[in-house]
Design a protein that fits this description.
single chain; 363 residues; alpha/beta; TIM Barrel; seven-stranded parallel beta sheet; two-stranded antiparallel ribbon; 12 helices; binds zinc ion
Length: 363
């Protein structure tokens, strides 16, 4: 493990996804319904995605993604590359996400193609900027795509399913490293969801320690034996259409972060739903913080000065060398998420201008 040798202060990252233009959202739906072949859809996305990359470059980002425009969602991308799932089997339970159907695992996993390596190859060939790619953590895959109703004949328990995901994710991380991506991010929002008692009740979670242990095991298993990487873990409260799925401060889980074999944690802090910045007093001393300075659920576009003040608040708890900047989350982790692309650009631009002010002020 290593921090990036980018020589930058207050580096700026995206979390991953960007809002997709409506025609791209339609394209994803048409591909899923079989109205266009994967190959033809891929050619159109090859035309679209350079715009997502240029937008980030113009906003001033140090690390850019492909906007995740090829994906239906940040977690379904696993089910798209690995056989064993049946699409649209269950929704989000009683949460606001119930309109979004998810696949469930129904047979033993069998990888059929890379999860994100092709995306990264395309991204790297279309930018000279540093690159970041996100893939879901085995813990979040397990929480999201195993169901007692549909999955027990394939994997008797959720934990067994998570264990089966670990080597697949580890192999993908290895491939991404070999391709030369600069930063790899494991998406693990479902760790942060645990902080909300209403969520735990909805999900029937009573043993939080067990969940946290399983999450740590998944992260460390996925990164085991892989050195010289720069790996982030992203966690958040989940969101759709400008509303968070959960809320609450990170106190319950902050102690677990030091046990994870990753370098950086990209976390929500701009939204009031994340419960304040004081929890950073317990942030592990050997990790880099990806400080959420942009609230993607708020249509108000932050000013660069607001970004500066959010970072300076965090500097009460962490030295500036361990602070990087990112929005709270990807703007549209699901292609169905109706967010505004121009607004995302303006917010990212403000974040990067804020980083410039911070570099001037704090060197
Ligand atoms: Zn997120």
């Amino acid at each position: 493990m290593a921090v990036p040798q980018d020589g930058l202060a207050f580096s700026t990252f995206v979390v991953g996804s960007l809002p997709r233009p409506q025609w791209v959202r339609d394209l994803i739906e048409d591909r899923k319904a079989g109205r266009i072949s994967g190959e033809d859809a891929g050619k159109l996305l090859d035309d679209a995605i350079p715009l997502a990359i240029r937008m980030q470059e113009r906003a001033g980002l140090d690390y850019v993604s492909d906007g995740e425009w090829r994906r239906e969602s940040y977690v379904k991308v696993f089910a798209d590359a690995v056989k064993g799932f049946k699409a649209d089997l269950f929704g989000g339970g009683s949460s606001q996400f119930s309109s979004l159907a998810y696949p469930a695992v129904v047979s033993k996993l069998e990888p059929t193609r890379p999860i994100a390596s092709e995306e990264v190859g395309f991204l790297r060939s279309h930018t000279s900027a540093r690159t970041i790619v996100a893939i879901p953590s085995p813990y979040t895959i397990g929480r999201r795509m195993w169901s007692a109703e549909h999955s027990t004949s394939a994997y008797a328990t959720r934990e067994e399913f998570m264990e089966a995901c670990i080597p697949i994710i580890r192999k993908e991380i290895q491939s991404l490293t070999e391709i030369g991506v600069d930063a790899i991010q494991l998406d693990d929002p479902w760790l942060a969801l645990l902080v909300d008692p209403d969520y735990r009740e909805r999900e029937g979670i009573t043993d939080i320690d067990h969940e946290i242990e399983m999450c740590i095991r998944c992260v460390n298993g996925a990164t085991e034996g892989l050195d010289h990487l720069f790996v982030s873990l992203h966690m958040c409260h989940a969101h759709f259409n400008r509303r968070h799925g959960t809320r609450g401060p990170y106190d319950l889980i902050i102690g677990a972060l030091g046990q994870m074999n990753v370098d950086r944690f990209a976390m929500e802090f701009a939204t009031p739903d994340a419960g304040g910045i004081e929890v950073l007093r317990d942030f592990p001393a050997d990790k880099v913080l990806g400080l959420g300075v942009i609230d993607h659920t708020d249509p108000h576009v932050e000013t660069p000065e607001e970004v500066v003040s959010r970072v300076e608040a965090a500097m009460q708890y962490l030295p500036k060398e361990r602070i990087t900047l990112n929005p709270d989350c990807g703007f549209s982790p699901s292609s169905a998420n109706p967010m505004d692309l121009d607004e995302a650009y303006l917010k990212l631009r403000a974040m990067c201008e804020g980083a410039g002010l911070l570099r001037d002020r704090h060197g």
